[in-house]
Amino acid sequence: MLWGNRNWGPYLNDALREAEEKGYRQLIAVATSAYSSYSSCRQYREDFADALEDTRLQGVVRIDKVRQFFDHPGFVTPFIEGTRDGIRDVIAHFEAEGAPVDLATDVEILFSTHSIPSSDASRSGPAERGFDEDGAYAAQHLAVAEVVMHEVTKELGIDQDVPWQLVYQSRSGPPSMPWLEPDVNDAIGELPRRAAEPS
């Protein structure tokens, strides 16, 4: 196994030089970004091409990138387990206090992921697949959250909807550039107001 990074040492060029020294001719690359977006998919392929050119190893070493793995059971299962265990803890807390818990009103699950510029999100994933304006990036996150909540409610025998939402964190860039929302801090700030609203 070789380790090469885009933004920190060891860099891709270092990994390719090591591959050449070891006599490797074909590499399988696993990017640590599970979801589709420019920076998690296409940019890595561009980086591989640049590194091959920089090291003069085009035609000598081949790099095949593993597909996005947002829907692989080995990736999704820990989210199911963590969410399930968290809900169990909430139920146990309410029971220890002698208070009934209404999961439809007392709990809201926030699935938080890294925000990206809206323009990047809209270009994520193949256009012919008909993603909405937030592209494959948001659609894949929503799909995983739906699977997680379905599996958790099934495992716990919950027969009511547990509210949840997808929120975003780590926004950067100029304030004039739109990024995916809602921001996790804004969503958390809204929870008390929403809890106080009559249902």
UniProtKB/TrEMBL annotation:
GO molecular function: ferrochelatase activity
GO biological process, one term: heme biosynthetic process
Family per record: Belongs to the ferrochelatase family.
Name by which UniProt lists this protein: Ferrochelatase
Domain of life of the source: Bacteria
Region feature Disordered, mapped onto this chain: 173-199
PANTHER family: FERROCHELATASE (PTHR11108), FERROCHELATASE, MITOCHONDRIAL (PTHR11108:SF1)
Gene: hemH_2
InterPro entries: Ferrochelatase (IPR001015)
